[in-house]
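Exam revision sheet. Question 4 asks you to relate a sequence to its structure. Input first:
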Amino acid sequence: MANTTKRMLSMSLKKLLSKTTLDNITIQDITDDAEVSRKTFYYHFQDIYDLLDWTLQEDARHLVANKINLDNWEESIAALFVYMQENRMLVLNAFHSLERDTLEKEVFKLLSPLLHRLFSAQEGFNQLSEADQDFIVSVYGLGITGLFLRWIGAIIMTHGDERGLKLPPMIAPYQVVVVPVAAHKEGVLEGAKAVADKLTAAGLRVKFDDRDNVTPGWKFNEWELKGVPVRVEIGPRDLAEGKVMSVRRDTFEKAPLDIEGLEGEIKAMLDAIQTNMFEIARAFRDAHTADVHNMEELGRQVDGGYAKAMWCGEQACEDEIKDRFSASSRCMPFDQTPIGETCVCCGKPAKKVIYFAKAY
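Answer key, structure tokens:
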């Protein structure tokens, strides 16, 4: 009974996090949604963060029990990222609400039991001391946590728009969502399911949304928010004509497609979306990157872009740039073709080409 109540509260937290950030949610909001008293909440949890802890740990236990393949490390890590994507509103709203250190700890709590189980299947791991096992899990866990948080930020900042996420097809958990329209009419649901199965058999990652408690329009908006690259709409008129209506997430272009040969058309569309998103991102980066040769130019350029500069290699110059412009070195490109002879900061002979920018 206790776990049932906890799960109810956890589901209410997730539901609320799909709409707003953690710092805008009160215990009263959670108890109202779960239809329990505040006294019941405090019987099980100290505060909202305690509930968030329990939610992530419970989800981790579910992943370990149902999704972790001890024979396939890559598949297991992919399952974790799919979980993160499927629960991204929880993760993203927590990302916006929590200090980075706190969020890292929450993600690490989710990772730890998964990594322990994966490593326990490796020869020799169980013979190590508990301290050594924890150390190994910590090293890999912190590395994956850092990768994940940077991945979230990169995807949102690079591709997101005012209508939500916009995911490149290569990494989207679902590449296509199939939505039946007027599903109550004869043959529509079956026809839409056949199309979804056809695309799945062609090796695409497909979601067939046959929910009957929300309207097609609701589904359209929800899947746009979730960033699925292609939406396929199928109604009675479409089926009668042997066609479907396709909608691209990147451009919102609509195009009727024949059901016959649909697999090839959708694959070509996904390739086009991948290329288009990449080119848009690259063009944006290039338009916001410029060579700079002195501190005045650097200061102007890092206010919204990348500054490519020459650097003497001294920490003191990095520190001065950070103090003056809140910018730091981002990377040293493989192409070290000089754009000048002197350091952008001190004027001494330069050793490296380097990019400076502000971190967000």
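Marking note for examiners. The longest strand covers residues 352-358.
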